[in-house]
Amino acid sequence: MGADRSRDPLVAVARAFLEGRPLRHAMRAVAALDWEATVTRAEHERLAPILYVALRGGAAPASVLARLRLAWMAADRQHLVARSQLRDVVGALGTAGIETIILNGPALAADYYPDPALRPFVDLDLLIHPRDRQQALEILLGLGYTHDRPDRSLEHVPAVYLTPPNGSTLLPVDLHWECVEHAEGSRATELADEEIWSRATPAPSWGQMVRTLAAEDLLIYLAANFAIHHTLAGALWQLDLALVLKRHRARLAWDAIAARARRWGAAGATYFSLRAVGDDLGVEAPTATMNSLRPGELRVTLIDRMQRAGHDGLVRLDYFIGVLMLDRYSDIVRLLVSGLVPPPGWLRSRYDSRSLLAAYLTHYGRVARSLARAMLM
Q1: Contacts within 8 Å (CB) and 24+ apart, 328-332
Q2: What pLDDT shows up at residue 273?
């Protein structure tokens, strides 16, 4: 599998949190930390609140604990604001008869984390039916949100990114009408969305017209998100997947998961994500399912080789890892093209940036560095 991930401090902390163990069991990984680098990375990966809870018994310098405590308190405030904001948004959509599925964000924090403040997020991800996209956009614009690309046809994008009113403490809204984005424009996209809506679970605590993903679909969605959008790097996104897997493992329809992942072109992404969660966090999927999802030896060998570079190497090679996660050649070609001119909403979400120019510069810099490092592998 490459580098020894057990010595990655954030992986060690995530595993201790998942297993309900005191941090002292993971101290080998954090005994000689570069605190500045570790805290900066934890903030970037949104693991700072969990790191604070793990360390607040005194296992870190006072200045580090103070900085992490601020992140934890900010996440707590954010969740309170976002919870109210989410109800307002889905309520406005529901009044117009528009159904929504909550992806990630407050629902994931509330359903799977003992304290929602331990699961920060940077926007509200909502899924709607494609038929409702124009009406939903008009409703959100009426609430004061701003469309990042008003000149772009909704027919050719899977989502729009809406910034909140100026001066507000609200979060942006990432409005999706395709859940399996890497199969854009294909029958696989339509099939995945039809299946996802047919199984979505009502979530009355958020609103009468609100749903959440069925457990099997949530597992595939989180696995694809971790593998493709986060290129197998980031302990928090592994932790999301591990918490879902741990809670539902005995009741999941594993044959259906494998079949759906293949139909949706996400079998490879699901395999590599589940393998990483099993190796790093100790929560494993059934062997038969893993064998069914396993891609060809060439892709496995290439991913293994890239993973030997460790966390920083995965981040540097993110673009090429994302390409290798895809099952179909048509999706690989689409991703290569989209890498040249990626959509603004994806850029802002991927790089946690409100500045579109900064996000583009960061993206092209990463692509260039990934290409250079891949050539040196």
Answers
A1: 328/183, 328/188, 328/265, 330/186, 331/182, 331/183, 331/186, 331/265
A2: 95
The residues, ordered by sequence, that sit 6+ positions from 372 with a Cβ below 8 Å of its Cβ are none
Amino acid at 122: V
Q: What is the pLDDT of residues 210-247, one digit of tens each?
A: 999 999 999 999 999 898 888 888 899 999 999 999 99
Burial class (CB in 10 A: 0-12, 13-18, 19+), 129: middle
Structure confidence by residue, pLDDT tens digits, 54-93: 888 766 888 989 999 999 999 999 999 999 999 999 999 9
**Domain total for the chain?**
1
- 3-class DSSP assignment, residue 48: helix
7-33 pLDDT tens trace:
788 888 899 899 887 765 555 555 556
What is the C-alpha radius of gyration for the chain, rounded to an integer number of angstroms?
Answer: 20
354 C-beta neighbours (distance < 10 Å), count: 10
Q: Around 5, how many Cα atoms within 13 Å sit in the side-chain half-sphere?
A: 29
Phi, psi of 37 (to 5 degrees): -65, -40
Q: What is the reported pTM? A: 0.82
Tell me the C-alpha distance between 104 and 221, whole Å. 10
Higher pLDDT, residue 94 or 348: 94
CA–CA distance, 78 with 242 (Å, rounded to integer): 24
Do residues 348 and 356 lie in contact, with contact meaning Cβ atoms separated by under 8 Å? Answer: yes
Tokens 């405030």 found at: 77
Q: Which amino acid, residue 108?
A: L
- Residue 158's pLDDT band, with cuts at 50, 70 and 90, is confident
Alpha-carbon distance of 261 to 255, in angstroms, equals 10
Residue labelled with tokens 């609200």: 170
How many helices (H) and strands (E) the chain has is answered by 19, 7
Phi-psi region for residue 376, left (φ > 0), alpha (ψ -120 to 50) or beta?
A: alpha
Q: Which structural domain range is residue 296 located in?
A: 5-376
